[in-house]
Amino acid sequence: MKLLLTNIKELLQVRENCPIKLSGAQMKELPTLKNAWIYINQGVIEDYGTMDKMGPHQGFKTIDCSGKIVLPTWCDSHTHLVYAGNREQEFVDRINGLSYQEIAEKGGGIVNSAKKLQETSETDLYNQSATRLEEVMRLGTGAIEIKSGYGLTTEAELKMLRVAKKLSENYPIPIKTTFLGAHAIPTAYKNNKDGYLDLICNEMLPKVAKENLAEYVDIFCEDGYFSVADMERILSEGKKHKLIPKVHVNQFNSIGGIASAIKHNALSVDHLEVLTDADLEALKNTETMPVALPSCSYFLSIPYTPGRKMIDAGLPLALATDYNPGSTPSGNMNFVVATACIKMKLTPEEAINAATINGAYAMGLSSTYGSITKGKIANLIITKPIPSYGYLPYAFGSNLIDSVIIKGEEVK
Ligand code: NIG
Ligand code: FE
Q1: pLDDT digits (tens, 9 = 90+) for 350-406
Q2: To test ligand 1's pocket by mutation, which of 89, 219, 248 has the most ligand atoms within 8 angstroms of CB?
Q3: Which of 20, 183, 295, 310 is the most exposed place for a label (fewest CB within 10 A)?
């Protein structure tokens, strides 16, 4: 199919030779073309330019984008989109004064979601998750990562990853999967964390690898969950199965997980709400992408990742949703971009770079997604008529998306 978008008020993130990631001052620049067109052939970006230099285009399906802005779809590199049920009661408990940690200690939190998921059939889990995936695609997400970690038994962890795999077969956006067996210590192993780690290493990881269910391995490295030593063990074991680390670190405490993840060549380190100067130094001149999850900070009322400070120190930064039932029941990347500007003091240019090309990098997808570059997959957001791209994070509560194009086709 040949598709042509014309009269685009501004085409964003146009890069002839797109770097695989942007760091520090590079993030301030968002190359654009005003009064532009873009031509899509067989789902791929074939050419683009300004309206004064548009060639003949007979026989193309044409969409007039007058007044509208076009940009690459969001690349959401951190979600737990496959889950069962919800946890709005814990939300009310937090309003009434309990902390996230106190709720977890009472048997709520991740183990509560695990109980619901274990009782949910694979079909039901698929249907609940597909509804969420369709919602986020309509909100402009065109590439996504999904983690396990609400199963906490071999059977339930495999069930989650099979559902994610089935979603990737049935939907046209890339879905990357991550094995997060070490998300919490299940009730049955309450006083035997090492026994659970043995189960992960001896049973879960080999099965996940054998069925080819995940590309990445993750662990929640945090006081009360898993230590740095536990992380070292899981990442080393994952490596034997060719799984690349992408880890949860520094959400509530800095316990040395970042340096250790970097040592294991983690593709990304995610959360980072509590970041020491030593952590920041450790991230410099590495291939590891720091990922901030501002909707999680918003929902839990915890500190925001110091994104401004990180970018000023020359680091790259990606933005993702963390969509999950406990800390972030929202998969809306538009809100993430706005919140990064409003609360983390990123400029619109920096936030858009963080949510597109750097998000793609954090999923190993930056050679095919995350920018308007010839040969990349044509996953695009067409906005409603808006005055400028700065209006996107500014008008944070409005749905400013007119349509979403995935591989050259409109999402219905
Ligand atoms: O990334 N921090 C760990 N895991 C999830 C939340 C888990 C939950 O509360 O269900 C997160 O925020
Ligand atoms: Fe998470």
Answers
A1: 999 999 999 999 999 999 999 999 999 999 999 999 999 999 999 999 999 999 999
A2: 248
A3: 20
Task: For residue range 273-331, list pLDDT tens digits in order.
Answer: 999 999 999 999 999 999 999 999 999 999 999 999 999 999 999 999 999 999 999 99
What the chain holds in terms of domains, given with CATH numbers, is: 2-72+370-410 (2.30.40.10), 75-361 (3.20.20.140)
Nearest CA to ligand 1 atom 6: 327
pTM of the predicted model as reported, rounded to 2 decimal places:
0.98
User: From the CB of 326, is ligand 1 less than 6 Å away?
Assistant: yes
Cβ of 322 less than 6 Å from ligand 1 = yes
Task: Kindly report the protein residue whose alpha carbon is nearest to atom 1 of ligand 1.
Answer: 322
Q: What pLDDT does residue 241 have?
A: 98
Distance CA 188, CA 191 (A): 8
Instruction: Give residues whose Cβ lies within 5 Å of ion ligand 2.
Output: 322
CB of 268 sitting under 6 A from ligand 1:
no
Burial classification of residue 275, based on how many CB atoms lie within 10 Å of its CB (0-12 exposed, 13-18 middle, 19 or more buried): buried
Whether 382 and 64 have beta carbons less than 8 Å apart is answered as no
